[in-house]
Amino acid sequence: MNKQALRVTLEIAVGMIASAVLFYFVIRFGYTEAAANNGAITFLGLEIFSFENGTETPNTNNMMLLGVVSSLLFVVLGELMFGRKKKTSRRAA
Fold first, then answer.
1. Alpha-carbon distance 83 to 66, whole Å?
2. What average pLDDT is seen over the chain?
């Protein structure tokens, strides 16, 4: 595996871990309010967890979508930072 493929794979993994941690905190802090109201926990306008008649239901489709978006965001930001670093080091040489 070349360096770029390894870097992109690492960026995707970091994005997945970051989105899992983010969802943990969003659900943890929104849980009591949503459970009391039989409502839903939303993030960026998407429902990620709902309560209906005492039943807790995670919306895995929306969580997966937001996880993919965050992974892509990490890849883009990582590659921009790497490209900028590489470009700066070329100017210095």
1. 25
2. 83
